[in-house]
Write a structure and sequence with these properties.
The protein is an alpha/beta fold and about 375 residues long. It has eleven helices and 14 strands.
């Protein structure tokens, strides 16, 4: 197949090609003001004799060329597989990129644009086989790690696994393997439950829960890999009693766990992956990273700002610090009020949103004084006008 283009139209097509190239670059690269950049790809993984491709979002710092790796993977509860994409957890990937990691958010085979099909066989309530399910997904994570570690911008010696729900349980499966492929694990609401109706755990399924506990016990046996677990009190699938059984089993053979039992979160405690949960997760995450000598958030640059604010504005600023990136804070030209926005995918977008919020609430012109964990030049001039 070919297209015939008249000579007088070639300049038009040249402009279109250049515009397309510019658009592509804007998608794959950071702007001049961004500290991190995104890359979308289909990550090839080898599973036995088959090659599959996982839809992946990679977020990494702009500066530098060799970073520790964090592999991030989703859960599946109540999700429409075709509509779930790695951007679902982009806020987590951005947070870790700002900590100095290269973050790869993947979705399982059969989800989003990933090829293959999702392996969903874990037996049933009378004949559970949780290991079949978790070992298969642990194999997929291992294959993703193998490919990611070939990237020239990845330091293969430091790898953190962060999983949600079945992703958390599958990360513990991977961490428990004899080659100890993970440096550390963050497990958010991790587990597997049996259902007849999607999103609703079957009742009277105690044998299945017993099998899940047995698997967690095996994952922890003789395993020194540091792990951090989060479970909310109102998780409908892995409530406090079951979470404590999983914890006791994992620790019984020597598994290392920092356990954080959280109060009820919203209407569904299984949704700790949401941006709004960061107020609960962020302190535990950074404490865990620091204890294990892994890159963590550094907000020291904002200390002069906090000390210069009024008590009311300081309280708002402390909430700002715990939000996910990208984020920006603004203050009115008279130095009063502290307004912020967070969670968008570019610093330019969140900057404009913070300014709009400040100007709408204060009725005055506003200036940006902080972006993520960094002060903006000239912030003192606005603060001292109060």
């Amino acid at each position: 197949m070919y297209f015939r283009v008249k000579c007088w139209n070639m300049s038009f097509w040249r402009r279109m090609v250049l515009a397309s190239v510019g658009l592509l670059l804007s998608i794959q690269n950071a702007t001049a003001n961004d500290l991190v950049k995104e890359e979308n790809l289909l990550l090839p993984i080898q599973l036995g004799s088959k090659t599959e491709k996982l839809e992946t979002l990679v977020v990494r710092p702009v500066d530098g060329d060799h970073f520790p790796l964090v592999l991030i993977v989703n859960g599946s509860a109540g999700a429409n597989q075709s509509e779930m994409h790695p951007e679902w957890l982009a806020h987590i990937a951005h947070d870790f990129a700002h900590r100095g990691w290269i973050a790869a958010s993947i979705v399982w085979p059969g989800y989003g644009r990933s090829t293959g099909s999702f392996m969903n066989d874990a037996g049933d309530c009378s004949r559970p086989n949780v290991s079949l399910f978790l070992n298969a997904h642990g194999d997929e994570l291992a294959a993703a790690l193998k490919t990611l570690r070939t990237r020239p911008d990845v330091n293969p010696s430091v790898t953190l696994g962060l999983g949600i729900s079945i992703g958390g349980a599958s990360m513990l499966d991977l961490a428990g393997r004899t080659d100890r492929p993970l440096t550390a694990v963050i497990n958010i609401s991790g587990g597997v439950y049996h259902y007849t109706t999607v999103g609703l755990a079957d009742s009277n399924c105690s044998h299945f829960q017993d099998d899940l506990v047995r698997n967690f016990t095996e994952f922890g046996r003789g395993n020194p890999t540091p792990t951090l677990w989060f479970y909310a009190a109102n998780d409908p699938y892995f409530g406090p009693d079951l979470a404590q059984r999983l914890l006791a089993g994992y620790r019984s053979g020597g598994g290392a766990v920092d356990y954080v039992g959280l109060p009820p979160f919203g209407q569904d405690g299984h949704t700790l992956y949401k941006q709004t949960a960061n107020l609960l997760l962020e302190p535990g995450v950074d404490d865990f990273l620091r204890r294990n000598h892994l890159p963590s958030a550094n907000e020291d640059e904002l200390t002069p700002l906090l000390s210069a604010l009024t008590p009311v504005d300081r309280s708002s600023a402390q909430l700002y610090l715990k939000q996910v990136t990208e984020k920006a804070a603004a203050i009115a030209v008279d130095g009063r009020g502290f307004y912020w926005s967070y969670g968008l995918r570019s610093i330019e977008d969140v900057r404009q949103q913070a300014l709009a919020r400040c100007e709408n609430k204060s009725g005055k012109i506003c200036n940006i004084i902080a972006e993520n964990a960094h002060l903006v030049d000239g912030w003192q001039r606005t603060i001292t006008k109060r």
